[in-house]
């Protein structure tokens, strides 16, 4: 029996994308536990690697080199990724509360959310940034360097905290600012009498490096206030600082104190098997955890060493197996960057420095990242040696995409629909062929009806529900109708009754939110179990006057598009693990956004449709064919999702792309992205130029977007690209 055929019975939820969890995800992907559903909750699609942060700040590493791609890693592990902050953990109900959506249920949970360096100093929240979380600090630093280089801010920096982290960052920032062509003034402010966290020899080397870099050190200094351009200290002159960085110690995230988790000074108290005190089904690891059984400083090395034990014990908790204790080493090697490509090593009180040690540190850090970036290739699906003619060819083709990439080709659909006889019902205005059927209502108005369902392309049921609901509503919006009623049609993977209930609650809550926001009511539906998650909706809408169709465009109209294209190629790359996580996250965020306001702004369009499975070219063709016009698409004006162009040029394609190309309105459209199948794509409207420009202005004033991508003229359906 294949792992995917085993019913899902247990929910494992990892809160946070720290180093230990990242390594657990890698091991999980190589050997998943049958029957366990894995979820990761993290506010961003990437997680910065601590070891390379000073090198990134100094300019030695790019942003991509620094970041762990959690989207790719979760896809490899078969885990759904929820991009949001966890806000609470209810152990009695076994629920994790998440910002922006309903709670997530767990049977076993693990917390690896790191720490923050935010300090309780007047003015810190307004004028300073903590060195942790790392992603927030790294972004602020990149913006500061750009501003200092441009001369718009003074290159003055203050670092509060004279430990290893503070000194390391001060050296890195000094080097980067000098490389940017400015003369920096960097100051380290330490509350104690000397640099802390290292031995005597290492301290002397750090002080020498800081002195050579022109860094000022203030000791026995107590900061009383932080201003926009100064740090105020008790009994000492203020320090000029256009950027103030907090690096004085580790502080727990505030939301942990609102839970009933056992805490020591705000950190989660754990036992030798890394589960929390008093609850064997909740684990904590990394800097957010306290280990009274083996007290250690906050250092990434312990999270990395804990990962194999955590992985084993999570599986043990899910299967009822025996657990292992975590035994952290008492002494560990410290490798500290010194700004330039020099590093210092300290262990057992000895300290050495030089370029060779930086190369050694660089090799260690790159090896860690390579492990998480270059994921093992998974074994291809078994293909039977003996099969009916044609079966092996289909199985050897690219895997079936999700979303609109899984649709049947347009030519096949057109052939099937052509066999339908014309409607003899006088109330039916249009049927197959337009975005939705149009039916006269007894009151003199019109009702539009459409249905759509999607094979899941992401593993999060909530995210997939939002996309499917927006996608289904697109047909109603494209006709200028007001959404009215929705019915769901769901297929869930085989799972236990408890997980069925959890999944249906999440799906129903997400669907109700989208439809209510659009002015419609979710009134019920139908649910079965099958091989994979599939979510669909039947929707209706109403309009007092004749709905907008694809057949009303006029010569001289322009084509206005409300959303970029390229989602098909990005989702295809995501499914094969080659898309960048940030690109996937940005695309999915756009696909979940309703288009109610866009539809209202475009309600006077001559013709309109939504760009979905048959790609931009296919939907332009629908307007041209129905309206008896030619179209000219201005390729440079067509908006494209970030990352889609590079993936397309690399040969990545959705499984529906070839059928779209073969069914293209003309063979002259060479750009594959114009044929790329879209899911929850933008509205495509035909309007007079003046009306289109006015609509774009209204869209922009509402915080929305619109692009004029082409023109329409009299003709017989020819489409050209310029």
Describe this structure in words.
The chain is of the alpha/beta class and 722 residues long. The strands form nine sheets. Strands 5-2-1-9-21-20 form a six-stranded mixed beta sheet, covered by helices on one side. Strands 26-27-28-31-29-30 form a six-stranded mixed beta sheet, covered by helices on one side. It has a six-stranded mixed beta sheet with strand order 33-35-32-36-34-37, sandwiched between helices. β27 and β28 (446-455) form a beta hairpin. α1 runs parallel beside α4 (70-77) and α1 crosses α9. It starts with 9 loop residues before the first strand and ends with a strand.
Radius of gyration: 29 Å
User: DSSP helix count?
Assistant: 21
Taken together, the total number of domains comes to 4
Helix content: 25-40%
Query: In what order do the strands lie side by side in the largest sheet?
Result: 5-2-1-9-21-20
DSSP strand content: 25-35%
Number of β-strand runs? 37
How is the biggest beta sheet arranged?
Answer: 6 strands, mixed
What features would you highlight for this structure?
722 residues, alpha/beta, FAD/NAD(P)-binding domain, 60s Ribosomal Protein L30, Chain: A, six-stranded mixed sheet, 21 helices, 37 strands, 33% helix, globular
Question: How is this fold's topology laid out?
Answer:
Elements: E1 10-15, H1 19-30, E2 36-42, E3 46-48, H2 53-58, H3 63-66, E4 67-69, H4 70-77, E5 80-83, E6 86-90, E7 95-98, E8 101-105, E9 108-111, H5 124-127, E10 128-130, H6 134-150, E11 156-160, H7 164-179, E12 185-189, H8 200-212, E13 216-218, E14 223-226, E15 230-233, E16 236-240, E17 243-246, E18 263-264, E19 267-269, E20 275-276, E21 279-284, E22 289-290, H9 300-319, E23 334-338, E24 340-347, E25 350-354, H10 355-373, H11 391-396, H12 410-417, E26 428-430, E27 437-440, E28 446-455, H13 461-478, E29 482-493, H14 497-517, E30 521-530, E31 534-543, E32 558-561, H15 567-576, H16 581-591, H17 596-601, E33 607-610, H18 615-627, E34 629-633, H19 644-649, H20 657-662, E35 683-687, H21 689-701, E36 707-714, E37 719-721
Parallel strand pairs: 1-2, 1-9, 2-5, 9-21, 10-17, 11-12, 11-17, 12-13, 19-22, 29-30, 34-37
Antiparallel strand pairs: 3-4, 6-7, 7-8, 14-15, 15-16, 18-19, 20-21, 23-24, 24-25, 26-27, 27-28, 28-31, 29-31, 32-35, 32-36, 33-35, 34-36
């Amino acid at each position: 029996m294949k792992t995917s055929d085993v019913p899902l019975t247990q929910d494992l939820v990892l809160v946070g994308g720290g180093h230990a969890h990242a390594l657990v995800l890698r091991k999980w992907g190589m050997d998943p536990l049958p029957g366990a559903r894995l979820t990761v909750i993290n506010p961003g699609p990437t997680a910065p690697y601590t070891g390379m942060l000073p090198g990134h700040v100094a300019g030695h590493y790019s942003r991509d080199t620094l970041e762990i791609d959690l989207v790719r890693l979760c896809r490899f592990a078969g885990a759904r990724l929820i991009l949001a902050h966890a806000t609470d953990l209810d152990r009695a109900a076994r629920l994790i509360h998440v910002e922006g959506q309903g709670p997530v249920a767990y049977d076993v949970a693990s917390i690896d959310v790191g720490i923050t360096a935010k300090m309780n100093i007047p003015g810190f929240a307004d004028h300073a940034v903590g060195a942790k979380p790392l992603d927030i600090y790294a972004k602020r630093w990149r913006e500061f360097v750009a501003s200092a280089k441009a001369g718009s801010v003074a290159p003055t920096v203050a670092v509060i905290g004279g430990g290893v982290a503070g000194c390391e960052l001060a050296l890195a920032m000094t080097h980067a600012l000098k490389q940017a062509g400015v003369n920096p003034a960097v100051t380290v402010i330490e509350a104690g009498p000397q640099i802390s966290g290292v031995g005597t020899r290492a301290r002397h080397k750090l002080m020498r490096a800081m002195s050579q870099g022109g860094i000022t050190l203030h000791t026995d200094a107590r900061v009383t206030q932080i201003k926009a351009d100064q740090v105020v200290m008790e009994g000492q002159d203020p320090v000029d600082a256009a950027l103030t960085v907090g690096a004085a110690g580790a502080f727990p995230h505030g939301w942990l104190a609102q839970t009933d988790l056992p805490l020591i000074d705000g950190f989660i108290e754990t036992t030798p098997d890394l589960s929390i005190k008093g609850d064997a089904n909740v684990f904590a690891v990394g800097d957010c955890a306290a280990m009274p059984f083996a007290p250690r400083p906050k250092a990434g090395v312990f999270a990395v060493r804990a990962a194999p034990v955590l992985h084993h014990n999570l599986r043990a908790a899910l299967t009822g197996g025996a657990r292992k204790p975590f035994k952290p080493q008492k002494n560990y090697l410290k490798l500290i960057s010194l700004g330039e490509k020099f590093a210092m090593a300290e262990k057992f009180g000895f300290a050495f420095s030089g370029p060779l040690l930086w190369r050694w540190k660089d090799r260690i850090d790159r090896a860690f990242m390579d492990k998480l970036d270059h994921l093992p290739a998974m074994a291809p699906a078994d293909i039977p040696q003996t099969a009916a003619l044609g079966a092996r060819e289909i199985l050897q083709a690219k895997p079936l995409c999700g979303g609109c990439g899984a649709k049947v080709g347009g030519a096949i659909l057109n052939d099937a629909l052509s066999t339908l006889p014309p409607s003899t019902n006088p109330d039916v205005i249009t049927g197959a062929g337009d975005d939705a059927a149009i039916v006269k209502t007894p009151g003199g108005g019109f009702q539009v009806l459409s249905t759509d369902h999607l094979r899941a392309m992401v593993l999060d049921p909530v995210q997939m529900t939002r996309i499917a609901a927006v996608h289904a509503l697109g047909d109603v919006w494209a006709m200028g109708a007001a959404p009215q009623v929705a019915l769901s049609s769901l297929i869930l993977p085989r799972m236990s009754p408890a997980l069925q209930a959890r999944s249906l609650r999440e799906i129903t809550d997400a669907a109700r939110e989208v439809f209510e926001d659009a002015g419609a009511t979710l009134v019920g539906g139908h649910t079965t179990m099958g091989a994979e998650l599939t979510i669909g909706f039947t929707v209706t809408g109403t309009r007092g006057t004749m709905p907008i169709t694809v057949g009303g465009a006029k010569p001289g109209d322009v084509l206005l598009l409300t959303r970029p294209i390229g989602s098909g190629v990005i989702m295809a790359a995501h499914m094969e693990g080659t898309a960048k996580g940030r690109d996937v996250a940005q695309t999915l965020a756009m696909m979940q956004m309703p288009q109610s306001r866009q539809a209202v702004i475009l309600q006077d369009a001559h013709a309109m449709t939504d760009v979905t499975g048959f790609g931009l070219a296919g939907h332009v063709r629908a307007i041209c064919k129905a309206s008896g016009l030619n179209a000219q698409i201005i390729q440079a004006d067509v908006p494209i999702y970030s990352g889609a162009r590079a993936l397309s040029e690399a040969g990545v394609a959705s499984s529906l792309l070839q059928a779209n190309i073969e069914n293209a309105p003309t063979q002259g459209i060479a750009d594959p992205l114009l044929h790329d199948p879209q899911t929850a794509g933008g509205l495509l409207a035909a309007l007079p130029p003046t009306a289109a420009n006015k609509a774009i202005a209204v869209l922009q004033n509402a915080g929305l977007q619109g692009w004029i991508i082409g023109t329409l003229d009299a003709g017989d359906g020819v489409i050209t690209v310029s």
